[in-house]
Structure prediction request, 480 residues.
Amino acid sequence: LVGVTDTCLSDTLSIAEIAADLGANAVVASAPCYFQIAQPELLDYFRKLIAELPLPLVLYNMPGLTKVSFEPGTVRQMLEYENVIGMKDSSGDLNVAAEYVKVVAERSDWTLMTGPEELLAEALQIGVMGGVCGGANLFPRLFVDLFEAAVRKDAEQVELHHNAVLHLGKNLYQIGHYSSAYMKGIKCALSCLGICEDHMALPLNRFAEQERLVVKQKMEQLRQLEVPGVQSVLAGYSNA
Amino acid sequence: LVGVTDTCLSDTLSIAEIAADLGANAVVASAPCYFQIAQPELLDYFRKLIAELPLPLVLYNMPGLTKVSFEPGTVRQMLEYENVIGMKDSSGDLNVAAEYVKVVAERSDWTLMTGPEELLAEALQIGVMGGVCGGANLFPRLFVDLFEAAVRKDAEQVELHHNAVLHLGKNLYQIGHYSSAYMKGIKCALSCLGICEDHMALPLNRFAEQERLVVKQKMEQLRQLEVPGVQSVLAGYSNA
Prediction:
């Protein structure tokens, strides 16, 4: 699922064509991110986008960065398009998520996901179906364990894993002074683990050596967590 | 002066190359418009942009759409780059503009312009050097008259033209319910006058016939204004 959000229709379609050529299964698009458009404009934009997209579409509610929310009534009108297959909500507002749960129930094939991992446990409780969480790149088993515990209503295990997720955030997502600390922390940790490079496109930059050292220290601390989904990843990790 | 704002460095540079090939004199760039970056990140981004730009650069402070302001200290650090030649401030905050006036005074070749035309008269009073105002596309003489009256400190004429500018906004920029009404109103009026088409890139759309009729009525009302810069444009205009 490849993000194709941009400022206008033609650029979003260009990215979607590239994603399709490279074998993506679907694309993910938030509201266009420069002009502050109204709901009828948002709906009109998506209708035109959907008509030309080469792949299925997942809606992405990211008002903190786009300044434009998908209101529930707008989402309802998207239900009629077969090639729209779900939604990710990163509003961080569980009341909004609860509204989406109601709307999305009308299309049994839709998937409704949440973004902020610190709200995943609660979001699952109110009917959200899963998460697209940054930390799952680092500790996939942790998030699967949380999800499965929520599905079988094992409150104790949900709490254990939820607390580990919070711990992860407090350790890795608050290094430095910038709001990009979350992304940089995850990418730097992935790089320390040898999973991928931590290169970022400007205007963002990867952590410098100083912050990288802090990430390494924090991972040592995380290793002390008695949570299988964390230990399994960090077992072989040494702060070299 | 061609706008090159985008979400990342490479796309901004691509637009700048096209602008240079087509003969532009300079480019105008605001903060990149998706991620909410901090001032050191903004400065780093612009340093890298400036190093690669094929044309001189005008900074564009547009926090309402980019979520990121140029703080005065950041602007001060841009003064050292010869190919940065000025700034447009669309914060709509005259306190911010006054800070810029102080900073920019250190480079006598810089031009400091304001965006919001309803603040042009006041901005000129506090030391801003001019405006890049949407309404000047329709009524250039009106804005030049306002500017010249401000330069010769003719308070009565400033007020006359300032009031005409406010009148223009009340008539043409508040049609319909969307925050894009300002741009759509100007473009539609330009189209009614035969100056250019009112096509807009999605996610925005030109006014439909219903709003176009309102624009035509409003232009009839504007014609009654006893202001040369408005009358000269509308003299030959008939609501046909």
Observations:
- Chain A touches chain B at residues 5-11, 31-38, 40-42, 44-45, 48, 64-67, 177-180, 201-205 (CB under 8 Å).
- The first helix of chain A runs from residue 9 to 21.
